[in-house]
Amino acid sequence: MSKRTPATSKTPADAPKTRSRAAKPADEIAAVPAKAPRTRRKASPAAEVAVAAETAIVETARTPTHDEIARRAYFIALERGFSNDPLADWLAAERELSLV
Asked: Which residue of 10, 61, 65, 89 has the smallest Cβ count within 10 Å?
């Protein structure tokens, strides 16, 4: 192992002169634009309410399954005494279930 020599404040005359980042001249520092930190804009309260309302609509509006429509159409037909058109009962059941 080699022994380290203590650092001296004087540099040899033939050593290349290097500057640290802190030693840049003021004109070089001013020429480099500072990067602004990336921040996320906070949405306004009205926008938050609108997004929440859209989310609620999307979550509640769903397509009813075939079995759900068939079951509701049966009960609609039962209420009418099975005297109506089965297609009309099916469409009525589909309409009712898609509104919920």
From this structure: 10
pTM of the model: 0.40
pLDDT in tens, 47-85: 777 766 666 555 556 789 999 999 999 999 999 999 889
What is the token pair recorded at 90?
A: 């099916």
Residue 92 burial (CB < 10 Å; 0-12/13-18/19+)? middle
Exposure string of 60-70, with b = 16+ CB inside 10 Å and e = fewer, is eeeebeeeebe
Residues 6+ apart with CB under 8 A from 60: 100
Q: Domain range for residue 71? A: 63-100
